[in-house]
Amino acid sequence: MKEIKNLYELMLYQLRDLNDGNLRQREFLNDLTEKPDSPDLQTSIDYYTRETTLQNNRLSQVFTLLNEDAHNGDCAGMKAMIKASKKMLNECANSAVCDAAIITVVQHMNHYEIAGYGTAISYAKALEKHDIARILLDSLRECKNADSELSDVALKHINLEAR
Q1: Cβ-count burial 2-34 (b if 16+ within 10 Å, e if not)
Q2: Is 2 within the bounds of a domain?
Q3: What is the pLDDT of residues 113-124, one digit of tens each?
Q4: Does 108 fall in a domain?
Q5: What is the rounded CA–CA span in Å between residue 97 and residue 41?
């Protein structure tokens, strides 16, 4: 394992973690395509999957601007969340509870991303890489909006149906 010697290397570590995590998350979301029973939740998942692809594209752009390799990351946090999420979804007794569980797992992943993007943005600003910070800020905003949208879907009917 390579030693992290400075903030730039720590930022790269965080960006690679985000990149790998986003790739894993997108694959997981693609596997969820047929799972939601709620049309509103299905629409949210489809939209969030497309946003995750855009976020991956932005991260690729960041690595290009930095002239760095994107593929050295191994997002243990996302791996663990996906493993736990699959277990939980397999244990749901009915579609209403499954829909509530889908919101839970996607929001957990989303909050992990929010922390990662926020951290990477603060590192980029400290390193005076404001172009990188601006690119990452778009992804951070998308994650926060997706979280809010999923909460709205849960509160409007998913959680009530799962009672």
Answers
A1: eeeeeebeebbbbbbbbbbbbbbbbebbeebee
A2: no
A3: 999 999 999 999
A4: yes
A5: 13
